[in-house]
């Protein structure tokens, strides 16, 4: 795992000055790569690459980057892991040796024909690109990655990103220079960086609590979409232009192919195939030259990953969990029970509110652009815990989106089927009645009901879910229900001054993968937006903030493609999600250790804002300072703050959005 960056200044540059700039940009990413640093400059072209390395495979100098190919034609800065690079090396054996283009004294990857200099996957990838070209090489790779590739012969720069978006990559023109990097802080380190705020992207942030790709918080800076590569030619660079990203793998196409050729086997055959693919993915991602472990929450996804790790390990797998003393937020005891059954080397840390809140000042620089998923706090804490013992940790992310785990998949369609016939005015009145009781009040009512509530309806934080129900009652159809469920501020353009909310994949039906069922459509849209832009961002920045590599076996693209061949009944059955994953897990862990209401990975932000965080929040929500900044209308912010403090409503998510924006804005003096 590493950090990459660079720039292209068409027309050429001074070598030493460019090298120093690239080094400064790379050093902004030292947390992503504390083990080694490197720069490479093509002064005549004006191209510079910078790299910070976290050594995982081949800890020797043979893995140093930027790395030059055997022929000398290609130079790469690479972040990530190619899990099948050994198989790729075998396929490359016997390829005729390419004569180097120049003898510039820079370390080169030799490739199979010249004798491998090391065993890094970066060297393998370069040889694959020389042999098959960039698109076919990417299609052959199984992994998570972002890369920048300079073709010295054709004078083209290619940026690429993994299929599901595990690794980040930003790019764009700033004052005549093309900048790119793993995180925005690297781009900000270039002297031409302007950094004007994109108010449309800011509106999207307030809707979703993250800025969705391809946008970033800055005008002219983009996120490369998952599964694509972007090539910039020298004529384009001289004209300060760039083409459109090209897909080498398409999630929408994977969904379409799965619908055309569905899995036709029995339940037992589906479980066997899922177990085979998952074991294969987990085994490949357990390869490392450094200590390795896994996050374990005790839920379906992480327990499945850990169970398959332990089944293929000759020693106890190191697992990590953080717990909270507040029972409604604590899963540590469930994780400990799973760990005991599997025999892992388990470490848990119970976190005090003071320890959790101490993370908050770090969030603006950690996430680098406004990001307001409050589970970022426990994610950082568990990554910090794991890094004390290992350098690589596997996680269970992706199971909800692929196998139907989120609660909204169950009740959004059911809600519309049961209530859609009602006049909208009547549904609006019903929504008002539900929100007349605060979430805390609903929590007390559900608590008093106790055993009277069916087990399948015993959700954590039921009050919040009742208020979510009220928010969608007045919508016009199932798609509108989904959009409302994944929105925080429902009309953010009225909050962000001068903003027009730009289109996203969620608002452009022409870009939706073909699905037969509304629940499948929600799962597909979550995979395209919520998964890469929230979940994977949250994990990547938290883990890399402590120099920890994370790997996500459930997002092996072969697992993803198989999941979309399955009928919905193998995912959601009897109002319960992840049926197939559960069957795989039950082969390793007793059902009694797993079956319980789904919990989020959260912290009690609502209580903290009324208590120990109140002064901090009051300063950030100061009406005069909001007005002077000129980005937000203070009136709705102050109204929600007053209602939250009084206990009339729980506006924790809306307020956390504003607080994270304001904390970020002040940190970077926007």
What's the gist of this structure?
The chain has 670 residues and is α+β, with helices and mostly antiparallel strands.
The profile of the biggest β sheet is:
6 strands, antiparallel
> Which structural class should the secondary elements be placed in?
alpha+beta
Termini Cα gap: 31 Å
Radius of gyration: 25 Å
Number of helices: 29
Shape: globular
**Low-pLDDT sequence parts:** 98-113
What's the arrangement of strands in the largest beta sheet? 2-3-1-9-8-10
What share of the residues does DSSP label as strand, in percent?
5-15%
DSSP helix fraction? 40-55%
What is the mean pLDDT? 91
Please tally the β strands and state the result.
Answer: 17
Write up what this structure looks like:
Helix 2 packs across helix 4 (121-132), helix 15 (376-387) crosses helix 22 and helix 17 (408-419) runs antiparallel to helix 22. Helix content is 43%, strand content 14%. Strand 6 and strand 7 form a beta hairpin. 50% of the residues are buried. The model is unreliable at 98-113 (pLDDT under 50).
């Amino acid at each position: 795992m590493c950090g990459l960056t660079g720039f292209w200044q068409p027309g050429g540059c001074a070598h030493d000055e460019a090298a120093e700039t690239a080094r400064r940009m790379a050093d902004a990413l030292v947390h992503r790569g504390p083990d080694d640093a490197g720069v490479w400059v093509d002064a005549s072209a004006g191209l510079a690459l910078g790299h910070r390395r976290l050594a995982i495979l081949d800890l020797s100098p043979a893995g140093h980057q930027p790395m030059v190919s055997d022929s000398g034609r290609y130079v790469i800065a690479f972040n990530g892991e190619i899990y099948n690079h050994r198989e790729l090396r075998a396929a490359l054996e016997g390829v005729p040796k390419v004569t180097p283009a120049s003898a510039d004294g820079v370390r080169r990857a030799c490739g199979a024909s010249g004798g491998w200099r090391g065993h890094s996957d970066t060297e393998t990838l370069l040889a694959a690109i020389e042999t098959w070209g960039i698109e076919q090489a990417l299609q052959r790779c199984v992994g998570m990655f972002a890369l920048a590739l300079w073709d010295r012969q054709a004078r083209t720069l290619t940026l690429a990103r993994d299929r599901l978006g595990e690794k980040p990559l930003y790019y764009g023109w700033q004052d005549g220079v093309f900048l790119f990097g793993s995180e925005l802080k690297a781009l900000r380190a270039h002297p031409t960086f302007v950094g004007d705020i994109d108010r449309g992207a800011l509106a999207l942030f307030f809707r979703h609590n993250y800025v969705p790709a391809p946008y970033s918080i800055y005008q002219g800076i983009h996120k490369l979409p998952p599964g694509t590569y972007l090539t910039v030619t020298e004529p384009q660079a001289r004209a300060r232009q760039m083409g459109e990203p090209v897909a080498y793998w398409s999630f929408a196409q994977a969904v379409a192919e799965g619908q055309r050729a569905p899995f036709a086997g029995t339940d037992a055959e589906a479980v066997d195939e899922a177990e085979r693919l998952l074991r294969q993915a987990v085994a490949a991602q357990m390869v490392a030259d450094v200590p390795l472990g896994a996050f374990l929450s005790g839920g379906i996804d992480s327990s499945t990953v850990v169970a398959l790790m332990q089944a293929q390990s000759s020693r106890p797998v190191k697992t990590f969990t953080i717990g909270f003393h507040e029972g409604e937020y604590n899963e540590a005891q469930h994780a400990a029970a799973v760990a005991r059954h599997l025999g892992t080397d388990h470490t848990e840390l119970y976190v005090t509110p003071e320890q959790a809140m101490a993370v908050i000042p770090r969030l603006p620089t950690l996430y680098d652009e406004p990001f307001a998923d409050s589970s970022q706090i426990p994610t950082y804490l568990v990554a910090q815990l794991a890094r004390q013992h290992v350098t690589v940790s596997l996680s269970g992310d992706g199971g909800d989106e692929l196998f139907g785990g989120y609660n909204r998949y169950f009740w959004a369609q059911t809600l519309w089927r049961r209530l859609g016939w009602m006049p909208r005015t009547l549904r609006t009145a019903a929504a008002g009645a539900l929100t007349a009781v605060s979430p805390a009040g609903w929590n007390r009512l559900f608590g008093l009901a106790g055993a009277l509530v069916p087990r399948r309806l015993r959700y954590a934080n039921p009050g919040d879910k009742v208020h979510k129900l009220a928010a969608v009652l007045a919508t016009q159809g199932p798609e509108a229900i989904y959009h409302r469920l994944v929105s925080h501020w429902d009309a953010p353009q009225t909050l962000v001054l001068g903003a027009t909310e730009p289109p996203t994949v969620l608002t452009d039906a022409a870009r939706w993968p073909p699905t037969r069922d509304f629940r499948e459509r929600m799962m597909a849209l979550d995979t395209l937006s919520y998964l890469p832009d929230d979940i994977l961002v949250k994990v990547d920045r938290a883990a890399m903030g402590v120099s920890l590599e994370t790997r996500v076996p459930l997002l092996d693209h072969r697992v993803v493609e198989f999941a979309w061949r399955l009928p919905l009944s193998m995912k959601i059955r009897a109002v319960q999600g992840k049926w197939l994953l559960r069957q795989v897990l039950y082969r390793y862990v007793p059902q009694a250790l797993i079956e319980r209401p789904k919990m989020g990975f959260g912290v009690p932000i609502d209580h903290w804002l009324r208590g120990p965080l109140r002064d901090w929040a009051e300063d950030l929500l100061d009406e005069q300072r909001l007005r002077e900044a000129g980005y937000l209308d203070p009136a709705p912010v102050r109204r929600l703050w007053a209602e939250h403090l009084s206990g009339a409503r729980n506006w924790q998510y809306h307020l956390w959005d504003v607080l994270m924006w304001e904390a970020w804005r002040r940190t970077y003096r926007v």
